[in-house]
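From the shared-data thread, chain only:
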Amino acid sequence: MARSHCLRGHLIFQYQSHLFLEKGVDKTNIPELIEAFNIQLMEDQRRHYEVIYDRAMGVCDNLRRGDWIGELGQSAFNELLEKIEETNLSKNVLIGENELRQIVLALTGWSR
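Structure, as tokens:
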């Protein structure tokens, strides 16, 4: 949300500079044009939330019901451990279960 507000502020500043420096718009007309641009940005953001964010949150909410996401994660983690054992990588790997968990989370985008 903070990124969105900063981006909007930056876009408005750039648009204001563009109007004044490149288009030569009179200073008295700039506030009205800026307000119209700000409304466009807010409508675009609302559309983004309705089309993408709300649906993504719905998917996440469904995955959280009954700890389904936890079960899927544990299943994937167990499968990964099995593959490591099958390929004899466990003898060559010098990382523990917690490190492996962090690697999996990082590779799947669930961790920083």
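The chain has one domain: 2-108.
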